[in-house]
Amino acid sequence: MDIEELRTFVELADAGGVTSAARRLGVSKSIVSRRLARLEADLGVQLLARTTRGAALTEAGATFRNHAAKICAEIDLAKDSILPAGDVRGRLRVAAPLSFGPTHLAAVFADLARRHPQLHLQVCYSDRFVDLVSEGFDCAIRLGHLQDSNLIARRVGPIYGKLVASPDYISAHGAPETPDDLLDHQALMQGTEAWHFMDGRKSIAIRPQGRFKADNGTALVAAATAGLGIAYLPERLIEVQLASGALVPVMTRFPIPPAGLFVVRPPGQHPVRTVRILTQLLIECFDKAP
To answer: Are strands 48-51 and 54-57 parallel, antiparallel or unpaired?
Structure first.
């Protein structure tokens, strides 16, 4: 049993198929299959069962995957500790939000790859809540107010929000003056989330209602611009619309408390060196005054 067999198995388990794992590892499918066969022969158990959709973990495989991933992470950490200061290599898998990532984070990822030519960087953009451990991500970039979890989070900058609507919506329905007024308006939302405002030093939470919901911030921007309702959005996501007048701030007497941009990673004693470097780049980019 060697480290490449363990690493290949972890990739297979996370990718769910030989083709995807081979693409991630940069090797042929036959090499992936041979490494898995040797590992299973060494252990004397079947780790993956082939299905019509690819490969699924057996019960033994699911148990072994977590141990194998930890071993690979420890090896990577050991290599990290003896590399020259500027030498960064290996693989970094990052989950980033689809609404914010391509426009505001992609340049940071590109800069990271440019500075470190031996680093293999894979970024997956999605607004769904990614399970870092089970899906094999080294870290994720998340916006807003983090819920309690066992993940380790590092705040890399503030996110300022605004309550906005289109001029057409305001002309037809008026603008809310207080948080309670929002209950009489159409709210554009991701789900059933509460909206938070400040009244001086007092925090106010409102659960508005609306007929249009989307799990993507860009879709909510489009809905607000089309005059479907009032949206609670990060300023960075609506810079163009605010500048053009397609969206205007409403209820400005009750500002939205700042949220955060975070790097979150699975629990462990030490962050991977590549995660530390990415975190520092994000701090340099986002930890600024509004």
So the answer is: antiparallel
